[in-house]
Amino acid sequence: MSRHGLAHAFARVAAAAALLVAVSVASGTGALAAGQELGKVLPTRSPEKVYSSTCGYCHGHNVGPIIRGRGLPVETIEYFVRHGNGAMPAFRPTEISNTELKALAQWISQAPVDAKEHGQ
Ligand code: HEC
């Protein structure tokens, strides 16, 4: 490899390393979801799955208010999930991805009342 070629190759490696650092900072690699391996992207879960594993044990079980069947606005649901409120914790994009949240908020907004749920 010529001197020039070597310098070029080095510049490319440096750029790739810088990009990797930027990506891991942006995605907050320090905060992996439970069971997630470093460098592995978790598959997108269905709204039903996210609701039953993350929301449903409070909402529908007397901890939080009933949120299905009320036609809550999508934006309101998204806001509560990202910011939390009182006893409700906030969820980060590493826990519920933006794609999952969009689908989840839409699903909750349109979901009918579930007679098995109870709460305020
Ligand atoms: C640890 C229990 C808990 C979990 C888990 C939880 N919430 Fe909540 N949530 C609450 C409580 C308690 C409130 C009422 C907070 C308040 O207004 O003081 C609430 C309020 C809300 C509200 C506002 C409802 C209203 O009538 O104003 C929405 C929307 C909501 N939660 C959505 C969700 C979604 C979606 C999830 C799952 C990603 C979730 N929550 C997970 C406890 C929880």
In the CATH hierarchy, the third-tier topology of the largest domain is known as: Cytochrome Bc1 Complex, Chain D, domain 2
Q: Kindly give the count of domains.
A: 2
Largest sheet at a glance?
Answer: none
Please write the CATH class name of the largest domain. Mainly Alpha
Number of strands: 0
Question: CATH superfamily name of the largest domain?
Answer: Cytochrome c-like domain
List bound small molecules.
heme C
**Distance from first to last alpha carbon:** 72 Å
Shape descriptor reads elongated
Q: Mean pLDDT, as a whole number?
A: 82
Write the layout of secondary structure elements.
Elements (H helix, E strand, L loop, with lengths): L2 H24 L20 H9 L18 H10 L14 H13 L10
Helix pairs in contact: 2-4, 3-4
